[in-house]
Design goal:
Elements: H1 7-15, E1 30-35, H2 42-49, H3 52-55, E2 59-64, H4 68-77, E3 82-85, H5 88-95, E4 103-108, E5 111-112, E6 114-119, H6 120-127, E7 132-133, E8 136-137, H7 147-155, E9 160-164, H8 170-181, E10 202-206, H9 212-217, E11 223-227, H10 232-237, E12 240-245, H11 246-249, E13 257-261, H12 262-267, H13 269-291, H14 294-302, H15 311-318, E14 321-323, E15 329-331, E16 336-337, H16 348-360, H17 370-380, H18 383-395, H19 431-437, E17 447-449, E18 452-454
Parallel strand pairs: 1-2, 1-3, 9-10, 9-11
Antiparallel strand pairs: 3-13, 4-13, 5-16, 6-11, 6-12, 7-8, 14-15, 17-18
Helix pairs in contact: 2-13, 5-17, 13-18, 14-15, 16-17, 16-19
């Protein structure tokens, strides 16, 4: 999407902006940001459509990208100034897994927002293993219910194929987490074999998010993990059933981030602050007054230049509900969270969790000390930039001081067992102890060598 704002409108907007607005001396004011067609790109669309970028003196072009790799490459080579990113992308790039570059984030874009969907045939087979109450499945649904189905496919010599959006995506790690919690091996990576399918009982492969429903319908995969609206799309098309949301899998888990190169931030500190201010305002707008603006957000996202799905499909999850089987609509007010619960603050503990999952499945091939996880988290996640931007908004009367975690050391309180599908608590300050607590996955000095786990 390329849209230019007329000069007279720019002047009017700037003159009518917040009276106390603190206009930064920008190093760069014409910017191009990338995104993937998912509802959690909403802060970018809202910052554009509500004029928050313009309030900061930023002239922004938003461009949809073909896939996550193209998007990351665009940020690294400077074609894009920044982008809506998978949280694992800045971390993986910085540690040299895949494309190597120092990418940082001053802004976490949302919490929750993903789901795991299976085909109708798989769901029919799973239902026999799922408790029901008043004729409806009891949620959350464990992968225990899927395990006999996977075993049946394997007994017939058929691979059980599933889709996820990228090797370092939240969706990959959430799908693996769910499968492993149900006793299903999701497979390992090694330096020699980056398929992620070493020793796998369910074979996971990469598919672009908008193509997930069609790939499921074609029978190429039997299930997938993806962000919205592509789980609800399967329900509307009558081709699949979302069996669990990531809110049920891990309550209020972090999702996307806004990524920029460290070089861009170093060369454009004021511009980075201005971007962060606009995005914080957009996130506030999305959640304010009990999600009162979500209908308007749905209309914006449904436009072809953004997500381009039907309003009804996007609204199904963006406005506080989620539909599982056709007609089984349930209240999930926190399915998409953009600001409350400190959703936009880039916590080090969130970064550490992603790194533990990279280690768990072999993307990080060798054991690392706890201090390494903290060091990488601090090199990528930049809460100091976030808080500086937040302070400016508070001083300008555009944000409430009580809404920001000023005294945080960057680590959340440990996630309690009750908030996670497998009942295993998570403490970002103790990554190796956490890895040891997980029944399936690499721990200690274990490595994947020659197609098997050793050590």
């Amino acid at each position: 999407m390329t849209r230019r704002i007329p000069a007279f409108l720019v002047a009017t907007t700037l003159l009518s902006g917040p009276a106390a607005a603190q206009m930064l001396e920008l190093e760069k004011d014409e910017l191009t940001f990338g995104f993937i067609k998912l509802t959690d790109m909403a802060p970018l669309a809202v910052a554009y459509e509500q004029g928050y970028f313009l309030d900061e003196g930023l002239f922004v072009t938003l461009e949809a990208q073909a896939n996550w790799k193209v998007l990351l490459d665009g940020v690294i080579d400077g074609t894009l100034d920044g982008a809506h990113m998978l949280a694992g992308q800045p971390l993986a790039a910085t540690i040299g897994y895949g494309t190597e570059a120092h990418v940082v984030t001053p802004f976490s874009m949302d919490l929750n927002g993903n789901g795991i969907t299976v085909s109708n045939a798989v769901w029919e087979a799973m239902k026999e293993n799922v408790p029901h109450e008043d004729g409806k499945p009891v949620h959350p649904i464990s992968a225990d219910a899927l395990k006999p189905v996977v075993e049946d496919y394997r007994a017939r010599g058929e691979p059980f194929n599933m889709g996820m959006v990228f090797p370092v995506s939240t969706h990959n790690y959430e799908l693996r987490y769910w499968l492993a919690a149900g006793g299903i091996e999701p497979g390992y990576y090694s330096p020699e074999n980056t398929s992620g399918q070493i020793g796998a009982e369910a074979l996971l492969s990469v598919r672009p998010p908008p193509q997930m429903p069609a790939t499921l319908e074609a029978g190429t995969i039997y299930g997938y993990a993806v962000g919205e609206p592509w789980n609800q799309q399967a329900v509307f098309k009558g081709i699949g059933v979302p069996v669990i949301t990531d809110y049920e899998l891990w309550k209020n888990n972090p999702e996307k981030v806004f990524g920029l190169t460290a070089k861009f931030v170093e060369e454009n500190p004021n511009t980075t602050l201005a971007i962060t201010k606009a995005l914080i305002r957009a996130a506030m707008w999305l959640d304010e007054d009990g999600n009162a603006n979500r209908d308007e957000a749905v209309e914006i996202l449904s436009r072809p230049e953004y997500v381009g799905a039907d309003e009804e499909v996007i609204a199904n999850s963006m406005t506080g509900t989620f539909e599982y089987e056709k007609g089984d609509v349930r209240e999930v007010p926190d399915f998409n969270v953009f600001f409350r619960y400190n959703a936009t603050y880039p916590f080090y503990s969130d970064a550490v969790w992603y790194l533990t999952q990279m280690r768990r499945w072999g993307q990080i091939a060798e054991a690392k000390p706890d201090g390494w996880y903290d060091e990488v988290a601090r090199s990528v996640y930049k809460p100091e930039i976030y808080l500086e931007a937040a302070r400016m908004l508070v001083d300008e009367g555009l944000a409430d001081e009580a809404d920001f975690p000023w005294d945080s050391d960057g680590y959340k309180a440990p996630t309690p067992a009750s908030d996670i599908i497998d009942g295993i608590p998570y403490d970002g300050r103790q990554p190796n102890a956490y890895l040891e607590s997980l029944p399936i996955g690499l721990k200690g000095d274990q490595r994947v060598v020659g197609g098997e786990v050793q050590g």
